[in-house]
Write a sequence for this structure.
């Protein structure tokens, strides 16, 4: 999602934080070995679903991270659509569901306070 890339860029510029943004290469499975490598030593993970959170990729990622049994444990925050999708222009729909750049910056900073 382009908004995520823009949000990460804005946070990095304004805070000096380094954020790793990963776009999953599949929809319906998680390769645990790959995920362990991607997560590395990170313990704050934010997932972004451009659809309902329930049953989405973020849920699968959170479950897979729990199965990895990382020490110390990684915390997962999920961002995505929480209500019936609205109609409108792309920008209107993204803003309504808080998936626009400004909303994502805010969500990411709330999820990982050390980047605020």
């Amino acid at each position: 999602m382009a908004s995520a890339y823009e949000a990460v860029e804005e946070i990095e510029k304004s805070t000096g934080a380094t954020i790793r943004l990963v776009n999953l290469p599949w929809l319906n499975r998680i390769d645990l070995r790959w995920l362990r490598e991607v997560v590395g030593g990170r313990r704050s993970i934010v997932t972004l679903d451009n659809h309902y959170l329930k049953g989405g990729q973020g849920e699968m990622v959170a479950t897979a991270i729990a199965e990895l049994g990382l020490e110390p444990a990684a915390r997962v925050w999920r961002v995505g659509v929480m209500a019936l999708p609205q109609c409108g222009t792309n920008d209107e729909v993204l803003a309504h569901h808080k998936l626009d750049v400004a909303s994502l910056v805010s969500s990411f900073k709330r999820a990982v306070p050390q980047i605020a």
